[in-house]
Fold Signal recognition particle subunit SRP72.
Amino acid sequence: KMAAATAAGPGAAAGLWSEVNRCGQNGDFARALKSVNKILQISKDDVTALQCKVVCLIQNGNFKEALGIINTHTKVLTSDIIAFEKAYCEYRLNRIESALKTIQSASQQTDKLKELYGQVLYRLERYDDCLAAYRDLIRNSQDEYEEERKTNLSAVVAAQSTWEKVVPEDLGLREATYELCYNSACALIGQGKLNEAMKKLHKAEGEVRGKVCVIGDVTEEDIEAELAIIHGQMAYIMQLQGRTEDALQLYNQIIKLKPTDVGLLAVIANNIITINKDQNVFDSKKKVKLTNAEGVEHKLSKKQLQAIEFNKALLAMYTNQADQCRKLSASLQSQSPEHLLPVLIQAAQLCREKQHAKAVALLQDFADQHPANAAEIKLTMAQLKIAQGSVTKACMILRSIEELQHKPGMVSALVTMYSHEEDIDSAIEVFTQAIQWYQQFQARTNYGCCVFQPKSPVHLSLIREAANFKLKHGRKKEAISDLEELWKQNPKDVHTLAQLISAYSLVDPEKAKVLSKHLPSSDTMSLKVDVDALENSHGATYVRKKAGKLTGDNPQKEQGQGEVKKKKKKKKGKLPKNYDPKVTPDPERWLPMRERSYYRGRKKGKKKEQVGKGTQGSTTAGSSELDASRTASSPPTSPRPGSAAAVSATSNVIPPRHQKPAGAAATKKKQQQKKKKGAKGGW
């Protein structure tokens, strides 16, 4: 509130002070500022006038000018008088650290300073201190702002759950407003309770619509603008649930509304980029502009801003902007030297440039400098080695991760890779080291205990897998100790006993006989199963044939000696149609003509008319027959219809090489008829 005039001045000054009071009560701080400036012309060091001017400037949003006046008149406006106004201006100018120092240096902590102190702690992400401050305020305050304090308290709890993964305690806040419902939903999202969070958001949406209906005269666009932040959180839950299409649709609807909250737009644009990934990069490049809006850095938390920068670097990599990607990732690494993502992005960019050796060296340097994060980095290095085909080197890297050597997943991966490389000894060594780790762990936990302690399920599982692996690869002697250990843990395990007997049968038959006495009898092992019903069941693959009548022709079946296998009759080979049994076949008939001993090659000098070449339908007659001057004097008789034309005897002789086998034309005709029968009709 504006400070009232404390001293009477000359007539002009008194009138100006009355004007200041009247404008302050009406909320017209622009006119009040004019009157205060006139008073300061009369008395430039008037403390009350200076204080009133600072208040007017703050109410008009001129925080920088107000702070300038406070810093200029430090002798008059001491920290005891103007501490709250100074801290508030610094807070609004996003000088959060300076605001904190101003509040802490104040001689008296008023309620106004405590309220501002809570806001400053929230912006500095000191959530534990902020929670304590708001609890103290709610406990020691009773005014009309109690609902706002509870809302701020729930916002702190939601931030703790989301960013620090702290399980929030039940503060007993009644969700009477949509802000409280929204903050409660954010806290549930941080705990992973997405379905419950969605219900809270629907409740918050109902509260908003109910409130708008009471006000009346509000368009649907105004309602949607008010609900934008709630719908944005709903879309985020859909995205976490894998409903990316629904989430993307809702995100785009919010962007079309053009909300004034730049922080909300930046978060939605970032989430759309994460959905697009390496696809639709043109849309992602447009959405990046929303994350660069002015003032975004003051609206979002540090982790939100960091996530946006990571996605910018990844988008630069996907769009083949190598220099931009390296620049962004290097900047991120300088801000957070121990963070994994910047170095992983740099390694990924090097891999895209086919510089795998540099990528591995970069990851190795990071692992050496930050041993706490070495495990995840070495997993990535192993993956790169596998991609290069260096499976053995990948195994060496994985085995160097001491904290993961005994994990079943790591053991399984190493054994599989060594088996692929046919390095059975190394695979067995991996099993042995893991089993020894669990033995040492059990010895540490049971220190000083002489009572037999059963092994853990994971330990027993590793022993069983090791035994099965050794049996599979013929290492029966090595598998015996593992099987004996398993049988010792569970003497009633018939399967393990059977494996043990099988292994001993090849190594020590006498020991196998002794162990076989522990097998249960056949009576205890018999199963009461109706074989006929089982064979006739719906899922049976084998159905027993009904027995036919026995005849005397097959005495073997009557005696139950089983069926005699029928001998397959050998088919007689087909002989050629012109086969003559009196003529000895050519022993070289299976060889090509050129490789036969009697082949003399093609004869040269033959006339072309004897070759019989030409287009289809052309005559093979010689040129002498076509010469009219060489024909006989008596004209030939005209051939009868259907008979062959008469030609000279010399031209009618066909060499043996060009004779077609008898029936070749008929065979060809039959083949054509078969093709016609098999063809389908229609166009």
The mean pLDDT is 79. The longest helix spans residues 194-215. The chain is about 60% helix and 0% strand. The domain at 11-108 is CATH 1.25.40.10 (Serine Threonine Protein Phosphatase 5, Tetratricopeptide repeat).
